[in-house]
Amino acid sequence: MKIYYALPLFLGFSSFVLAQKTDKITANLEAKKEVYSSIAQQIWGFAEMGYQEEKSTALLQETLRNEDFKITKGVAGIPTAFIAEYGEGLPVIAILGEYDALPGLSQEAVAEKKSVGKAAGHACGHHLFGTASTAAAIEVKNWLKTNKKKGTIRFYGCPAEEGGSGKVYLVREGLFKDVDIALHWHPSDANDANPGSALANKSAKFRFHGIASHAGMAPEKGRSALDGVEAMNMMVNMMREHIPSDTRIHYVITNGGKAPNVVPDFAEVYYYVRHGNRKMVIDIFDRIAKAAEGAALGTGTKMEYELIGGTHELLPNITLQKMMYSNLVKVGGVTYTEKEKEFGNQIIKSLGIENGSVDKAAVIQPYKTLDPSFGSTDVGDVSFAVPTAGMGSATWVPGTPAHSWQAVAAGGTDIANKGMMVAAKTIALTAIDLFLNPDQIVKAKTELEEKRGKDFKYIPLLGDRKPALDYRK
């Protein structure tokens, strides 16, 4: 019997079978909540940055290996990337998992800003991302095995999402060519499964080389590399008036010299360019590179740049998003204990939010046709290669922005673990729905082909460079 999944109500026997399946899958995952919470909190403690996630990837690989998954390590030339696979034949359903932390956001799991003295922190919740996706993959494996169903469940261990474009190398390597559907999620301050967007992104480190000299006694003999960086920044900031207003350009000076009385012979600035269309990103990036060349010419320095990352915009798939949203509604949101409410209210106060409420974590956000986002993700490249759907769950206190100490703090509590299990249940149910409904896979593929166009050819924005394994060093 075919069960057709859509937003309208299910009727008759199909409804009964669906309810039984949903209850069993969610109960199985809830029974292992403490196991998966322990894994997530270990990774939260590791707090390893992009391409350095040695302990994190090892823990997830071990967890999947113990559940009879075949592990392929070091894929696409990335030591911390891996693929875990169970089953055989079609369809091939992929679940994406991340596990990298962000630099400079060390934080204890308390409702006040308090560093633990580490180099990084999980301010984007990727310790939860990788673990929930692992949990979902294992539950789908158990369902395939118990019900003797044909098909393949595949987990992709994806490092360095934060600026390292890890998934782009996996796509470029052709590792998604035989995949039918890809599913993912992301930690958030709310529960939603809307067809969201994300901006294309291109990033590079611009390095200026000058001539060192005593800044007081012989400045005329020096050529300041820092002058080159500052001149470049000045021109780029003037350029903001003459680019589309929805463009995002960010930079940090990663090296500006060592002492004021030494003319710096080396300086470096790290740039991101974002826009909703990758072609616009390429154009603006090229203009920034020209500004860097001009800055070097004007300051008597030399300039070179290293392309660090580049991602496509996210291409939503409405067919899949409706299925995922339907399952998220069935699973429900996150309910806080009284102690968690106290923690949450302190976080809300620290954010300066008026009329904030921790009860919003229990709410499933209404379905929207398109949920805009000004962030970027390397899932974008996956979404152009294979039909892709994603969701967010309330792992942070409502109102918490990503990349904040408040996100790190909540990520070390059971609030985050609860939200993580919402994601695990929703993704597992959606994957199983796809195994049961091959017609929905066909529909999702047709939608992808229509959206990306007949003449689409995948060209990675980072070109043919090798993985930037040292970009966080």
UniProtKB/TrEMBL annotation:
Record keywords: Carboxypeptidase, Hydrolase, Protease, Signal
Single GO term (MF): carboxypeptidase activity
Signal sequence, renumbered to the chain: 1-19
The keyword Protease appears for this protein: yes
Residue ranges of the TM segments: none
SUPFAM superfamilies: Bacterial exopeptidase dimerisation domain (SSF55031), Zn-dependent exopeptidases (SSF53187)
InterPro entries: Amidohydrolase (IPR017439), Aminobenzoyl-glu_utiliz_pB (IPR017145), Bact_exopeptidase_dim_dom (IPR036264), Peptidase_M20 (IPR002933), Peptidase_M20/M20A_hydrolases (IPR052030), Peptidase_M20_dimer (IPR011650)
Occurrences of domain Peptidase M20 dimerisation (ranges): 202-293
Protein's name according to its UniProt entry: Glutamate carboxypeptidase
Organism classification: Bacteria, Pseudomonadati, Bacteroidota, Flavobacteriia, Flavobacteriales
